[in-house]
Amino acid sequence: MIMRIDGLVRQAPPAPALLRRLGYTLVRRRRAVMVLSLLATLGMGLLAAQAVAGFSLARFEAPGSESDRAAGELARRFGTGSVDLVLLVTAGKGDVDAPAVTAAGRELTRKVAAAEGVAEAASYWTRGNPVTLRSRDGRHALVVARIPGDADTVRSRILPALLSGITAGTAGGGVIEVRAGGGEEVFRQTVPLARQDFVRAELVIFPLAFVLLLFLLRRPLAALLPLAAGVFAMVTALALLRGVLAFADVSTFALNLTLAMGLGLGIDYALFVISRFREEVRAGHDLHEAVALSVERAGRTVVFSGVTVAASMAVLLALPFDFLRSFAYAGIAVVAGGVAGAVVVLPAILAAAGHRVLPRPGRAPDGASGGFWHRLAVRVMRRPVLYGGAATLVLLLLGSPFLGLRFGVADDRILPASAPARQTQEVIRQEFPAEETDALQVVSAGPVAGAAEVGGYAAALSRLPGVAQVDSAAGSFSRGARVGDGEPARFTGPEGTWLSVVPTAELMEADPVRLVEQVRSVRAPFAVLVGGYPAELADYRASVVDRLPSVLGLMLAVTSVILFLMTGSVLIPIKAMVLNLLGLAVMFGALVWVYQDGNLSSLLGFTPTGSLDPGIPILMFCVAYGLSMDYEVFVLSRIKEEYDRTGDTAAAVAAGMRRGAPIITAAGAILGLSFAVYATAEVVFVQMLGVGMAVAILVDATVIRAILVPASMRLAGPANWWAPPFLRRLHRRVGLSG
């Protein structure tokens, strides 16, 4: 960077010099920094508590899609829409057609329709006893309701008030029993379960992490400091998310990501700084000088790592989905907290704690523990093709199930079998011949010729495989034949008409998206929009999948630029990208093998659906890729430092592995543990995140860093540091080195 002052051109201080000045400032003002940090943590804790209470579970919606437009037209022109709440009514005695049950069912329907926030309600008894709202054995019937409004209002205020008086066990004087289901109730019950998963996981993670840190650092205070840095990162992130809540929805799942990543990254960054502090003391520097040098050298790597992880998460902001954007906010906030804790707060504590953080006298220095990694790196570089090829084949084999990936949509089976909403939906899925609550809604978007055209169109739709019945203003149709008069007034308005395409229960369980495609492919006699819950899921899935190439391309480009700024090399960012993608293939292979194909489902306690929701893999790709680059930055910083000193790539790799690999492996083990504990979660989304991330991190911190990095560096030789002349000039001007 160049500065012009008083007509003179002067070179601005490089970034490492600025970091060293920060280090000296933190040493001089260590007590003030510690006091201010404590006060800030307490203040942010209050904001963090408010943030946790404000998290919600965003809906799976695709703004501007055909289903979104159809929903708007249905509400505006016909005052109707998709069902949000389903009440499963079970007859206490006899069947649902018994007079007492009928009276109780009608009264229940009336009570629901009159409840605050409910726009409309209907039931088996108020719609002329359709078979689609009655179970095959006649013991159950359904009440359905539409509750417009944002997810927070519906799930936190309207549903609890509505359900508190009618699902406490029995209703109608014991004549009927009522249980709640439907999409809004399923996801309402998901929120507290996800929070319970967090509490249970954190109770396990903290003591286990402390034991691992104590084993690594051999001093209680040194082991506590990374945990404190993790807590600081979590609290800071949640406090920052409190500000985000003022203008955006944040998913409750972001809480789990914030806490797992916050603890893991906080520990990672703190370990790197503490390790460098000990190294500088061993090199003969006094404590305060060692702190300043640690901020300069390790702090630079921490900042680079943080920028890389944050950039990987930030690409989720390019997606128009609140659910995925929540994780971008959380990831950026976590990185901010982790970097601040490691580069600002921790150095002040190290300056005050002094020798109490150093190894006990007589203990072998930390670098000795890297002897294994040094020998392994040397062995790999002697036969890079053999070791690198074998490791690559193993990873490709482990990742091969990814080739069978099938994208689907989430349903009630994200909940454990013990969840009331899941149990309600299981009864509906097994006992009812059709899924009227999940009907497709076909809305006219232009002039309608007449009843004959409507009837012909309804008959054509009813012939589609998986369609149980089509209701319209021209009557009800099944397999092309008219089976009833239907409710003409319900489907007709002053500006057109709409039709309800009711799928079978079997199709909804197998492939609801396929039905949406088939309905949209049937030629209509007038312009139509296809909406309803299956269409919303299909449009959400298509919208996410269509954006995959651009999102992934953006993330790869951003992280490659960051690595170029760090190394000045063109080849190293490309190699890092390839190696990280190889590790991520293993993660996706594990997800497909376990959660799509159902292997280990009995052990982990979930119900496989034969597909994966596309939002979760995208999220995990961004998180895992960012964390992989985190370790890439850690190991490359040591290798580049040695190469700048010696000019020998092989020696630099061996020395970098000796000094960096023990810390990277330990950090990876702790971060992997932080995620792996979520394998005990009851909510499948949280469990998938934990298992997948643990696999990705452990593979990356071991096989990729220990074998593939040395092998690829050896094979590339001097080309590792190559860049065309114009990029070398660019790096000299804007690159960060030291």
Record the SSE blueprint.
Layout: E1 2-5, E2 8-11, H1 15-28, H2 30-54, H3 66-78, E3 85-91, H4 99-114, E4 120-123, E5 140-146, H5 151-164, E6 170-171, E7 176-181, H6 183-217, H7 220-244, H8 253-282, H9 287-314, H10 322-353, H11 371-382, H12 384-399, H13 420-431, E8 440-444, H14 451-462, E9 467-472, E10 475-478, E11 481-484, H15 488-491, E12 492-493, E13 496-503, H16 505-510, H17 512-521, E14 528-532, H18 533-567, H19 571-596, H20 601-604, H21 615-646, H22 649-676, H23 684-716, H24 725-734
Helix pairs in contact: 1-9, 1-10, 2-7, 2-10, 5-6, 6-7, 6-8, 6-22, 7-8, 7-10, 8-9, 8-10, 8-22, 9-10, 9-18, 9-21, 10-21, 11-12, 11-22, 11-23, 12-19, 12-23, 17-18, 18-19, 18-21, 19-21, 19-23, 21-22, 21-23, 22-23
Number of helices: 24
Strand content: 5-15%
Question: Cα-atom Rg, whole angstroms?
Answer: 30 Å
In total, the number of strands is: 14
Biggest β-sheet strands, sense, barrel: 7 strands, antiparallel
Shape: elongated
Structural class: alpha+beta
Description:
With 738 residues, the protein is of the alpha+beta class. It is built from 24 helices and 14 strands. The radius of gyration is 30 Å and the shape is elongated. The two termini are 14 Å apart. Mean pLDDT is 85; it is low at 1-14.
Summed up, what is this model?
The chain has about 750 residues and is α+β, with helices and mostly antiparallel strands. It is about 65% helix and about 10% strand.
